[in-house]
Amino acid sequence: MILAAGVVLQLLLGPIRWGLFAWPVNIIALVLFCCLIGVMYALRRKVKLFEWMMHAGAAVPALACALALTVIMGLTVQTGHGGIPWLSQMLTFWPFTLAWAWVCLICGLTALNHLLRWRWKEIPFLLNHLGVFVAILCAVLGGADLRMLEMTVYEGTRESQAVDEYGRPYDTGLSIELHDFIMETYENGAPRRFASDVTVYTQDGKAVSGTVEVNKPMKVNGWKIYQYDYDVKAGAESAYSGFELVRDPWLPAVYAGIFMMLAGALCLMLVMAPKPAKKEEKR
Q: Residue 52 in contact with residue 129, Cβ under 8 Å?
Protein backbone atom coordinates (compact mmCIF):
# COMPACT_ATOMS: atom_id res chain seq x y z
CA MET A 1 0.00 0.00 0.00
CA ILE A 2 2.90 2.35 0.80
CA LEU A 3 4.48 1.58 -2.58
CA ALA A 4 1.17 2.18 -4.36
CA ALA A 5 0.78 5.54 -2.63
CA GLY A 6 4.33 6.40 -3.64
CA VAL A 7 3.66 5.59 -7.29
CA VAL A 8 0.55 7.79 -7.25
CA LEU A 9 2.54 10.68 -5.75
CA GLN A 10 5.29 10.15 -8.32
CA LEU A 11 2.76 10.38 -11.16
CA LEU A 12 0.96 13.41 -9.70
CA LEU A 13 3.84 15.45 -8.29
CA GLY A 14 6.90 14.16 -10.10
CA PRO A 15 10.26 13.54 -8.38
CA ILE A 16 10.81 14.76 -4.83
CA ARG A 17 12.51 18.16 -4.78
CA TRP A 18 14.74 17.86 -1.74
CA GLY A 19 15.93 21.43 -2.12
CA LEU A 20 12.60 22.53 -0.67
CA PHE A 21 13.58 20.85 2.62
CA ALA A 22 16.64 23.01 3.29
CA TRP A 23 17.04 24.66 6.70
CA PRO A 24 14.78 25.55 8.51
CA VAL A 25 12.12 23.48 6.72
CA ASN A 26 13.89 20.21 7.53
CA ILE A 27 14.02 20.88 11.27
CA ILE A 28 10.32 21.83 11.21
CA ALA A 29 9.58 18.58 9.36
CA LEU A 30 11.56 16.65 11.99
CA VAL A 31 9.58 18.23 14.84
CA LEU A 32 6.26 17.55 13.10
CA PHE A 33 7.28 13.94 12.43
CA CYS A 34 8.12 13.45 16.11
CA CYS A 35 4.80 15.04 17.11
CA LEU A 36 3.00 12.65 14.75
CA ILE A 37 4.70 9.72 16.49
CA GLY A 38 3.59 11.07 19.87
CA VAL A 39 -0.03 11.39 18.73
CA MET A 40 -0.03 7.92 17.19
CA TYR A 41 1.36 6.43 20.39
CA ALA A 42 -1.26 8.22 22.50
CA LEU A 43 -4.02 6.80 20.26
CA ARG A 44 -2.61 3.27 20.05
CA ARG A 45 -5.37 1.82 22.24
CA LYS A 46 -8.08 3.32 20.04
CA VAL A 47 -6.47 2.77 16.64
CA LYS A 48 -5.41 -0.85 16.17
CA LEU A 49 -3.14 0.09 13.25
CA PHE A 50 -0.95 2.19 15.52
CA GLU A 51 -0.62 -0.62 18.06
CA TRP A 52 0.11 -3.15 15.31
CA MET A 53 2.95 -0.97 14.00
CA MET A 54 4.89 -1.62 17.21
CA HIS A 55 5.09 -5.37 16.54
CA ALA A 56 7.40 -7.47 14.40
CA GLY A 57 4.52 -8.21 12.02
CA ALA A 58 4.76 -4.61 10.81
CA ALA A 59 8.50 -4.07 11.14
CA VAL A 60 9.77 -7.10 9.20
CA PRO A 61 7.90 -6.53 5.89
CA ALA A 62 8.51 -2.77 6.07
CA LEU A 63 12.26 -3.26 6.49
CA ALA A 64 12.35 -5.97 3.82
CA CYS A 65 10.62 -3.65 1.34
CA ALA A 66 12.93 -0.72 2.10
CA LEU A 67 16.03 -2.90 1.86
CA ALA A 68 14.85 -4.41 -1.44
CA LEU A 69 14.50 -0.93 -2.95
CA THR A 70 17.93 -0.04 -1.57
CA VAL A 71 19.46 -3.12 -3.24
CA ILE A 72 17.83 -2.09 -6.52
CA MET A 73 19.36 1.36 -6.11
CA GLY A 74 22.77 -0.21 -5.52
CA LEU A 75 22.47 -2.33 -8.66
CA THR A 76 21.21 0.52 -10.83
CA VAL A 77 23.38 3.35 -12.09
CA GLN A 78 22.02 6.50 -10.43
CA THR A 79 21.98 9.45 -12.81
CA GLY A 80 20.46 12.89 -12.72
CA HIS A 81 18.78 12.30 -16.07
CA GLY A 82 18.21 9.34 -18.33
CA GLY A 83 18.78 5.74 -17.34
CA ILE A 84 15.94 3.53 -16.19
CA PRO A 85 12.87 5.67 -15.48
CA TRP A 86 12.38 6.18 -11.75
CA LEU A 87 14.88 3.50 -10.71
CA SER A 88 17.87 5.56 -11.88
CA GLN A 89 16.74 8.47 -9.70
CA MET A 90 15.93 6.45 -6.59
CA LEU A 91 16.70 9.22 -4.12
CA THR A 92 13.89 11.32 -5.60
CA PHE A 93 11.56 8.34 -6.08
CA TRP A 94 8.47 8.62 -3.86
CA PRO A 95 8.05 4.86 -3.14
CA PHE A 96 11.68 4.63 -1.96
CA THR A 97 11.30 7.61 0.35
CA LEU A 98 7.93 6.51 1.71
CA ALA A 99 9.23 2.99 2.38
CA TRP A 100 12.03 4.34 4.57
CA ALA A 101 9.69 6.91 6.15
CA TRP A 102 7.42 4.01 7.13
CA VAL A 103 10.40 2.22 8.68
CA CYS A 104 11.29 5.39 10.62
CA LEU A 105 7.69 5.72 11.82
CA ILE A 106 7.70 2.13 13.09
CA CYS A 107 11.10 2.55 14.76
CA GLY A 108 10.03 5.83 16.35
CA LEU A 109 6.86 4.30 17.81
CA THR A 110 8.73 1.25 19.07
CA ALA A 111 11.51 3.34 20.60
CA LEU A 112 8.94 5.52 22.39
CA ASN A 113 7.21 2.41 23.67
CA HIS A 114 10.49 1.03 25.08
CA LEU A 115 11.31 4.39 26.62
CA LEU A 116 7.99 4.87 28.40
CA ARG A 117 7.90 1.37 29.86
CA TRP A 118 11.46 1.74 31.08
CA ARG A 119 13.31 -1.33 32.30
CA TRP A 120 17.01 -2.03 32.11
CA LYS A 121 16.40 -4.96 29.78
CA GLU A 122 14.74 -2.55 27.32
CA ILE A 123 18.00 -0.66 26.70
CA PRO A 124 19.29 -2.77 23.75
CA PHE A 125 15.96 -2.55 21.94
CA LEU A 126 15.62 1.16 22.68
CA LEU A 127 19.10 1.87 21.33
CA ASN A 128 18.53 -0.22 18.20
CA HIS A 129 15.21 1.35 17.26
CA LEU A 130 16.17 4.88 18.25
CA GLY A 131 19.47 4.54 16.37
CA VAL A 132 17.73 3.52 13.15
CA PHE A 133 15.22 6.35 13.58
CA VAL A 134 17.88 9.03 14.15
CA ALA A 135 20.34 7.83 11.48
CA ILE A 136 17.85 7.46 8.65
CA LEU A 137 15.72 10.50 9.38
CA CYS A 138 18.68 12.84 9.85
CA ALA A 139 20.41 11.49 6.75
CA VAL A 140 17.30 12.12 4.65
CA LEU A 141 16.33 15.52 6.04
CA GLY A 142 19.95 16.69 6.24
CA GLY A 143 20.57 15.93 2.59
CA ALA A 144 19.09 19.28 1.61
CA ASP A 145 21.75 21.08 3.67
CA LEU A 146 24.66 19.08 2.25
CA ARG A 147 26.99 21.27 0.18
CA MET A 148 29.68 19.92 -2.15
CA LEU A 149 31.45 22.76 -3.91
CA GLU A 150 34.56 23.28 -6.00
CA MET A 151 37.11 26.07 -5.88
CA THR A 152 40.16 26.66 -8.09
CA VAL A 153 43.02 28.66 -6.60
CA TYR A 154 46.24 29.74 -8.35
CA GLU A 155 49.56 29.90 -6.54
CA GLY A 156 50.17 33.23 -4.87
CA THR A 157 46.52 34.24 -5.05
CA ARG A 158 43.55 34.19 -2.71
CA GLU A 159 40.15 32.94 -3.86
CA SER A 160 36.77 33.13 -2.14
CA GLN A 161 34.30 32.04 -4.83
CA ALA A 162 33.21 28.41 -4.88
CA VAL A 163 30.74 26.91 -7.33
CA ASP A 164 28.29 24.01 -7.15
CA GLU A 165 27.90 21.20 -9.68
CA TYR A 166 25.90 23.52 -11.95
CA GLY A 167 28.53 26.27 -11.89
CA ARG A 168 26.49 28.54 -9.63
CA PRO A 169 28.52 30.67 -7.18
CA TYR A 170 28.15 29.99 -3.49
CA ASP A 171 29.35 32.03 -0.52
CA THR A 172 31.12 29.71 1.94
CA GLY A 173 32.43 32.44 4.22
CA LEU A 174 35.95 31.19 3.49
CA SER A 175 38.78 32.32 1.24
CA ILE A 176 41.78 30.15 0.40
CA GLU A 177 45.28 31.36 -0.37
CA LEU A 178 47.49 28.84 -2.17
CA HIS A 179 51.16 29.15 -1.26
CA ASP A 180 52.50 26.09 -3.03
CA PHE A 181 51.37 22.98 -4.87
CA ILE A 182 53.32 19.91 -3.79
CA MET A 183 53.81 16.70 -5.75
CA GLU A 184 55.91 13.65 -4.95
CA THR A 185 56.40 10.90 -7.53
CA TYR A 186 57.56 7.32 -7.75
CA GLU A 187 60.73 6.41 -9.66
CA ASN A 188 58.67 5.82 -12.79
CA GLY A 189 57.26 9.33 -12.56
CA ALA A 190 53.76 8.33 -11.44
CA PRO A 191 52.33 10.66 -8.77
CA ARG A 192 52.69 9.29 -5.25
CA ARG A 193 51.39 12.26 -3.30
CA PHE A 194 49.99 15.64 -4.19
CA ALA A 195 48.96 18.30 -1.75
CA SER A 196 48.61 22.04 -1.26
CA ASP A 197 50.17 24.39 1.26
CA VAL A 198 47.39 26.86 2.04
CA THR A 199 46.04 29.44 4.44
CA VAL A 200 42.28 29.56 4.95
CA TYR A 201 40.72 32.85 6.04
CA THR A 202 37.28 33.10 7.65
CA GLN A 203 34.81 35.95 7.93
CA ASP A 204 35.25 36.01 11.70
CA GLY A 205 38.94 36.86 11.33
CA LYS A 206 40.63 33.49 11.70
CA ALA A 207 43.57 32.45 9.53
CA VAL A 208 44.26 28.72 9.51
CA SER A 209 47.42 27.47 7.78
CA GLY A 210 48.07 23.86 6.86
CA THR A 211 48.47 21.27 4.14
CA VAL A 212 45.53 19.81 2.24
CA GLU A 213 46.08 16.29 0.95
CA VAL A 214 43.96 13.67 -0.77
CA ASN A 215 41.82 11.99 1.93
CA LYS A 216 43.31 14.33 4.55
CA PRO A 217 41.09 17.41 4.49
CA MET A 218 41.42 20.60 6.47
CA LYS A 219 38.47 21.34 8.75
CA VAL A 220 37.53 25.01 9.10
CA ASN A 221 34.22 26.43 10.42
CA GLY A 222 32.26 23.27 9.63
CA TRP A 223 33.77 22.88 6.14
CA LYS A 224 36.04 20.05 5.03
CA ILE A 225 38.50 21.12 2.34
CA TYR A 226 39.81 18.31 0.12
CA GLN A 227 42.57 18.28 -2.49
CA TYR A 228 40.56 17.63 -5.62
CA ASP A 229 42.42 18.63 -8.77
CA TYR A 230 45.56 20.13 -10.30
CA ASP A 231 47.04 20.77 -13.74
CA VAL A 232 47.77 17.18 -14.80
CA LYS A 233 49.80 18.24 -17.84
CA ALA A 234 52.08 20.46 -15.77
CA GLY A 235 52.41 17.87 -13.01
CA ALA A 236 54.63 19.08 -10.19
CA GLU A 237 54.76 22.49 -11.88
CA SER A 238 50.99 22.94 -11.66
CA ALA A 239 50.14 26.59 -11.14
CA TYR A 240 46.81 25.90 -9.45
CA SER A 241 44.99 23.51 -7.14
CA GLY A 242 41.38 22.45 -7.30
CA PHE A 243 39.66 22.01 -3.94
CA GLU A 244 36.39 20.37 -2.96
CA LEU A 245 34.59 22.01 -0.04
CA VAL A 246 32.09 19.81 1.79
CA ARG A 247 29.69 20.82 4.54
CA ASP A 248 27.20 18.39 6.10
CA PRO A 249 25.81 19.85 9.35
CA TRP A 250 23.58 16.82 10.02
CA LEU A 251 26.40 14.29 9.81
CA PRO A 252 27.10 14.22 13.60
CA ALA A 253 23.46 13.28 14.20
CA VAL A 254 23.72 10.48 11.63
CA TYR A 255 26.88 9.19 13.34
CA ALA A 256 25.11 9.37 16.70
CA GLY A 257 22.33 7.15 15.32
CA ILE A 258 24.86 4.65 13.97
CA PHE A 259 26.70 4.52 17.31
CA MET A 260 23.38 3.91 19.09
CA MET A 261 22.69 0.96 16.78
CA LEU A 262 26.15 -0.47 17.44
CA ALA A 263 25.76 0.04 21.19
CA GLY A 264 22.35 -1.62 21.07
CA ALA A 265 23.74 -4.61 19.20
CA LEU A 266 26.58 -4.92 21.71
CA CYS A 267 24.20 -4.71 24.67
CA LEU A 268 21.93 -7.30 23.05
CA MET A 269 24.84 -9.70 22.63
CA LEU A 270 25.79 -9.26 26.28
CA VAL A 271 22.22 -9.81 27.44
CA MET A 272 21.67 -12.85 25.22
CA ALA A 273 25.08 -14.40 25.96
CA PRO A 274 24.69 -17.76 27.72
CA LYS A 275 25.51 -17.61 31.38
CA PRO A 276 28.07 -20.08 32.74
CA ALA A 277 26.54 -22.96 34.60
CA LYS A 278 26.96 -22.89 38.32
CA LYS A 279 29.25 -25.53 39.70
CA GLU A 280 27.69 -27.93 42.13
CA GLU A 281 28.89 -27.50 45.67
CA LYS A 282 31.01 -30.31 46.96
CA ARG A 283 29.51 -32.17 49.86
A: no
